[in-house]
Amino acid sequence: xxxxxxxxxxxxxxxxxxxxxxxxxxxxxxxxxxxxxxxxxxxxxxxxxxxxxxxxxxxxxxxxxxxxxxxxxxxxxxxxxxxxxxxxxxxxxxxxxxxxxxxxxxxxxxxxxxxxxxxxxxxxxxxxxxxxxxxxxxxxxxxxxxxxxxxxxxxxxxxxxxxxxxxxxxxxxxxxxxxxxxxxxxxxxxxxxxxxxxxxxxxxxxxxxxxxxxxxxxxxxxxxxxxxxxxxxxxxxxxxxxxxxxxxxxxxxxxxxxxxxxxxxxxxxxxxxxxxxxxxxxxxxxxxxxxxxxxxxxxxxxxxxxxxxxxxxxxxxxxxxxxxxxxxxxxxxxxxxxxxxxxxxxxxxxxxxxxxxxxxxxxxxxxxxxxxxxxxxxxxxxxxxxxxxxxxxxxxxxxxxxxxxxxxxxxxxxxxxxxxxxxxxxxxxxxxxxxxxxxxxxxxxxxxxxxxxxxxxxxxxxxxxxxxxxxxxxxxxxxxxxxxxxxxxxxxxxxxxxxxxxxxxxxxxxxxxxxxxxxxxxxxxxxxxxxxxxxxxxxxxxxxxxxxxxxxxxxxxxxxxxxxxxxxxxxxxxxxxxxxxxxxxxxxxxxxxxxxxxxxxxxxxxxxxxxxxxxxxxxxxxxxxxxxxxxxxxxxxxxxxxxxxxxxxxxxxxxxxxxxx
Length: 661
Ligand code: ATP
Ligand code: MG
Fold this sequence. Notes:
- The protein is an alpha/beta fold.
- It folds into 2 domains: about 25-115 and about 120-515, Rossmann fold (3-Layer(aba) Sandwich), CATH 3.40.50; about 535-655, 2-Layer Sandwich (GMP Synthetase, Chain A, domain 3), CATH 3.30.300.30.
- The protein is built from 20 helices and 32 strands.
- Strands 12-11-8-6-7-14-15-25 form an 8-stranded mixed sheet, with helices on both faces. The chain has a 7-stranded mixed sheet with strand order 5-4-17-16-18-19-20, with helices on both faces. Strands 23-24-26-27 form a 4-stranded antiparallel sheet.
- α3 packs across α4 and α8 crosses α9.
- The structure holds adenosine-5'-triphosphate and magnesium ion.
- Magnesium ion binds near residues 272, 423 and 512.
- Adenosine-5'-triphosphate binds near residues 275 and 279.
- Its EC number is 6.2.1.1.
- It is an enzyme of class 6 (ligase).
- Belongs to the ATP-dependent AMP-binding enzyme family.
- Its cofactor is Mg(2+).
């Protein structure tokens, strides 16, 4: 039976599927399979030579002579340490200087589809960034100061980031959906004395009072000297004399050179989404992050000048930092910034945007795809999507079912998909297929990016070699060697950095994720290690059980957690949301149990199936299993920090549902 379970499990996660590199991608790539093998080998055998060459992608005021200098015990990470550069120069100025000032840097698509989109050229962007950089200087911002940015998804949000990078201020972008409480905590944590915000934002037709939220946050936390307010919607807002300044009213000069930054000077702080606890202020530095985002964007998306790249992530998340702003701009690309949400005014909005702006590369999250799948193929099929060349996902393991839909329906079965595994802490993509080099397996992120050495270890830290489990093995995912885009510390708390990432397995970076590697050298993220369930001694990733549940036609989304069980040690508790128009029933309950038994085996039989209309998600759309675990355990008092939750009322409904069981 154990053998049978194992075999079934492999089927559900892999579906025995293999999608070869599509022809379109073979003819359009910087990196063929042979190139990948050669470059990867070079990056491992002589990392310094490899990363010295990659550093040539960008301009340096003083080129680095030292490349890597790191140690994981004790922890100290430096890249290009004697190099001097400025990220804003590389993202903006050098393109203008090279005569590409008329190229489009950003396409801004407003929330309201009836409103005109705005195209911002590199030359215009340079002008705006200089204006904002000078405004910040006038307000007293100096190199090294932390600046909190609380902006809508609009060009000015990116301008604010670039203006900080230009003058050497350290930005901390706080997602525009966060509450005053959450903003105050983040301002306090990094002792930020300056804030940039907009009057308000609109998302899905609803107004978000950004300035009023900042006012409320500043009632809770002291120390902020100045707030720079960008007029975005024109909504009336209160201005505090002496503290608040309208950006458009400030008289500033049109000159502002890019501050020469040492490679290891801090670039930004970004608080992780908090699906596993109190948010951490992850700190990235200038040189390594610049090279890493420039190189990963180039290879992973095979970007060609003139193409339109659309990443749907908010600039409040690392994906927005690396692949809405810094990766595309350093490559002289055109990046689309979308203010709204995928379901407004209807669930065809993404595809409308793709047609309207002839988007070539589309990068989104599994959570968005699952939500859109709920409405069926109609809204997708009603749009052409002919401009698309490449699709991507990030943020969570993608269920094979959602992958297939993305591939068959959105991509018409013709486009490559990159399933990119990475983290706030990694700065950019770490594991992915490269579109022209690797075939795809639905649910697998694929192969390590250049220089990345993943390793699987068991709970005691013993390295799991391929041979140990008949050519395929699973365990906890570590990275054994540093890479340029690695976070350097947790702001103000280096001990927490060391504790969180380098103490579980001494001498290695521990990702916190569980993972499996198959016989073809493909890596399969199985979810967070904390989410692994142990049923009668059988360990299984929540992603596997969830994938089995969503295979059912009526199921939209599933979240699975363990709960204490007298006999089995842990039982399996499944939260399930249904597709539009479907209702829970005893029959469906039985079908779902049966489905999991068939797909994985009787060992994975759900003990509880809890139908719900919504799941608790972080603002970036990730399911918060930590909270679901507590609810399953009937431990309602210990839900922990819920400040990063998108809709806290979901929790009350779930508790009520649990109590009525
Ligand atoms: P916190 O660390 O505060 O709990 P978080 O981990 O959700 O928040 P991020 O850094 O945005 O914050 O997310 C990184 C995590 O997202 C990864 O560790 C992994 O669990 C998951 N993830 C991201 N991309 C993928 C992917 N392509 N496949 C599987 N999992 C992914
Ligand atoms: Mg994390």
